Amino acid sequence: METVQHMTIFGTGLLGASIALGLRKAGFSHAITGVGRREVTLDAARQLGCFSDLVLQDDAWDRLADCQLVVLATPLRWFEPLLEKLAAHQHEAMVITDVGSTKRKVCEDAQRLLRMPERFVGSHPMAGGEQHGPAHASAELFRHAPCIITRTDASTASAVALTESLWSTLGMRLSQMTPAEHDQRVATISHLPHAVAVLLVELAVREQSLSVASSGFRDTTRIASGDAQVWTDIFMTNREACMEATDALIAELRDFRDRLDRGDEHAVHDLLHRAKSARDHWAHGG
Amino acid sequence: METVQHMTIFGTGLLGASIALGLRKAGFSHAITGVGRREVTLDAARQLGCFSDLVLQDDAWDRLADCQLVVLATPLRWFEPLLEKLAAHQHEAMVITDVGSTKRKVCEDAQRLLRMPERFVGSHPMAGGEQHGPAHASAELFRHAPCIITRTDASTASAVALTESLWSTLGMRLSQMTPAEHDQRVATISHLPHAVAVLLVELAVREQSLSVASSGFRDTTRIASGDAQVWTDIFMTNREACMEATDALIAELRDFRDRLDRGDEHAVHDLLHRAKSARDHWAHGG
């Protein structure tokens, strides 16, 4: 982040505001412009005191001339129109990244729409949870959480280095993948679990069994309380990988059902024991 | 609990010890005998100071003559042999209940094995989580949690009343169901979610994606860290309802996959929105 004198964050909600707060806490003292779509969001972000400037989108474009880093932190659905507009204001010294939960679409859009696609690098900082808005923002939101960097074939080394520097400064654990590999992995460990949580709630409601649900159900379905529009965008921009992951889970459920049907106690125990060991190892930082 | 001068708890692990602690905290001052299978477990339970007596199983039977309430709080697999032995020591003044997570099998076993099946009432206090052993026991474990009472066709009103009194004294929220209805409902809100958590871990391990898993995955799969033997017993004693619940989830997953395949954004959003509303309502005590 040493080369950055001015950065611009599109979206001043939970993620955008937490980036600004985290950078201030890490000692970043240069300009951070926050861009919002409504005055009321800008007012809420203003309370945090971490943005040097807060402007509506129409006023943002002319300010990009001296900007070295742009972060797209809006909902996924705005990425494509934003990239379209950013194309006209791109310059060699500006790197663009994003915080989207899916990466193939935004990376393809960047390749297609930007005049200098080599200055775009995808990012997925895996933090946030169910809460939204700058009121929940925190300088610590990203600390110790994983961040996946998805460079495109075009991305230059310097653009990747600056993007990595942003997330490292916020305390994240970095890894690199292709956009396709990212989307497949998060389909398995994030998008499919979300769909399952939603469907378990659906089944429980249909059977009118929520009244006897307890702490286990509460944990398992917590993510089903995530924002419906945010998650619709995620599923719609990662359809293929989510369908594949769904097929894989259906196959596992069939196999589990067969073990029960056969009354095969050992096969059930093996499965439970293996999963418990793997999860315990992972949960304890293994 | 006014009529109880002496109660016996088979099993002095997390649940059995928490019952004794909770009763003491509620002011129950009469005899509580704890029965264990190994001296080391009895020693651990002795530290808690809530049992008036702790004995090995072989020494338990002769002490049942003046006992008005017996609670089976061992792992599920020991219920059948325990009921078989209890039959010889049953008397009119003694009510028997249990803490098992499945109810059809124990209620059928009680009907079949006991000399006085009318003195048996099934219970499922829904508390506990992943931890085991008397060291994790707490007088507050059961407070505000749901407890499902499953009377059999034979159960007398007085036996049901005493069983309800036990769990009410510990602060639980009571409901009554048939054993079959219980097993079907918990298959949906507890056993199926457990199987799904296990299978999601299995898929993540196979894809080597655990390294990028985050807090959502941690919550969704928390129950997969439950004891493998305890959960094997649960699945094996609730096979039919678990197979039905698995089939229902497979049907839901297929429907979800179809929505993605059609690119039907509205249908995906409807599903997510409905589940979020239902879960939020439930989680906030609705």
Unreliable spans of chain A:
none
Mean of pLDDT of chain A: 94
Helix content of chain A: 40-55%
Q: What is the quaternary state of this protein?
A: homodimer
- Discrete helix count of chain A: 10
Main beta-sheet annotation of chain A: 5 strands, parallel
Question: How much of the polypeptide of chain A forms β-strand, as a percent range?
Answer: 5-15%
- Rounded Rg of chain A: 21 Å
Q: What pattern of helices and strands is seen along the backbone of chain A?
A: EHEHEEHEHEEHEHHHHH
Which strand order spans the largest sheet of chain A, edge to edge or round the barrel? 3-2-1-4-5
| Shape, principal axes of CA atoms of chain A | elongated
Biggest interface and residues each: A-B, 84 and 84 residues
Key phrases:
homodimer; 286 residues; alpha/beta; 3-stranded mixed beta sheet
Description:
- The first copy, chain A, is an alpha/beta fold.
- Chain A is built from ten helices and eight strands.
- Chain A has helices at residues 14-25, 39-46, 79-87, 104-113, 157-169, 179-206, 215-220, 228-236, 239-261, 265-283, and strands spanning 6-10, 31-36, 53-56, 69-72, 95-98, 121-125, 146-151, 173-176.
- In chain A, the strands form two sheets. The first copy, chain A, has a five-stranded parallel beta sheet with strand order 3-2-1-4-5, covered by helices on one side.
- In chain A, helix 3 packs parallel to helix 4 (104-113) and helix 6 (179-206) packs across helix 9.
- Chain A is elongated.
- The relative contact order of chain A is 0.11.
- The model of chain A has no long low-confidence stretch (mean pLDDT 94).
- The interface between A and B is large, with 84 and 84 residues.
